[in-house]
Amino acid sequence: MSDKILSIGNSVVQHGKENDRVYLMKFYPDDFPEIIANIEKLCRKHKYSKVFAKVPSRFVPSFLVSGYSVEAYVPRFFYGNEDAFFLARYFSKKRSQPDNEDITKFQAVLKREEEAVSSPLLESRFEFGVMTKEDAEVMASLYREVFASYPFPIHDAEYLKETMDDNIVYYGITDGKRLVGLSSAETDKEFLNVEMTDFAVLPEFRGNGVAYYLLCRMEEDMKARGMKTAFTIARLKSAGMNLTFKKAGYSYSGTLINNTNIAGALESMNVWYKPISVAELS
Predict the structure, then answer these.
(1) pLDDT digits (tens, 9 = 90+) for 98-139
(2) 100-281 has which fold?
(3) CA gap 147, 134 in Å, rounded
(4) Domain pair 4-90 / 100-281, same fold
(5) Rounded to two decimals, what is the model's pTM?
(6) Cα dihedral 217, 220, 226, 231 sign
(7) 3-state SS string for the chain
(8) 23 band by pLDDT with thresholds 50, 70 and 90
């Protein structure tokens, strides 16, 4: 069973046993301060081990007083002006402890010098395109092949179609007629930020620059659509994806400990961000 998404006031929350958490996905000031008690009540009711919340900077102190800690942040997340803080409260000591080996390996990734490529190229056999509803079945099949589990039901073609109608743009790379790589841009047209997410490349095609090419083309499209800030939540274990964002000029801003059920287990996730508006890049 995938986690459920519900509204508490005007704010949007995801919760469920799949990720064993409550996730405050979208916070609205009108729901403050009651939202803090309401999401804690939901967490205790279902005996989840973590609350994860994205919160505007001006509301952070009240969350800290309520037992939250800062795990990451994204500058100018809201309207290209106000910063967002990624906060966590744990109801399990085990859940709050990162894998030291994974952290050590990631530290080595951060120390690597990566030279950005302004105009990434793919071999001529590859083709890039924006995905449509007609592609949903093959997209879901690729996601099922790459991920044993995922925090959102991207294995379901109907879910993919619904999100295309809502706020997500999907991008793909094909090798002839075969889909070999996917990604998505989850746009927030109200707050003018975009999450670069859902990257999946078939194992036999990794090492060809597919993910990096997707990311660069996504940025071009999102900048044209008026988004101001791009960010991602990347798997701590995935050196390749972290290097991709580092190479593309994203800044690392923190690690969400044991945050997301992906590829069959709870994993820690890294937050990266980058300003992409014309004003920021000029």
Answers:
(1) 999 999 999 999 998 876 666 688 999 999 999 999 999 999
(2) Aminopeptidase (3.40.630)
(3) 21
(4) yes
(5) 0.93
(6) positive
(7) CCCEEEEECCEEEEEECCCCEEEEEECCHHHCCHHHHHHHHHHHHHCCCEEEEEEEHHHHHHHHHCCCEEEEEEEEEECCCEEEEEEEEECCCCCCCCCHHHHHHHHHHHHCCCCCCCCCCCCCCEEEEECCHHHHHHHHHHHHHHCCCCCCCCCCHHHHHHHHHHCEEEEEEEECCEEEEEEEEEEECCCCEEEEEEEEECHHHCCCCHHHHHHHHHHHHHHHCCCCEEEEEEECCCHHHHHHHHHCCCEEEEEEEEEEEECCEEEEEEEEEEECCHHHHC
(8) very high
Domain segments of the chain: what residues? 4-90, 100-281
> Which CATH code of 3.40.630.30, 3.40.50.300, 3.40.50.1820, 3.40.50.360 fits the domain covering 4-90?
3.40.630.30
Cβ–Cβ under 8 Å, residues 18 and 36: no
CA 94 to CA 266: how far, in whole Å?
Answer: 12
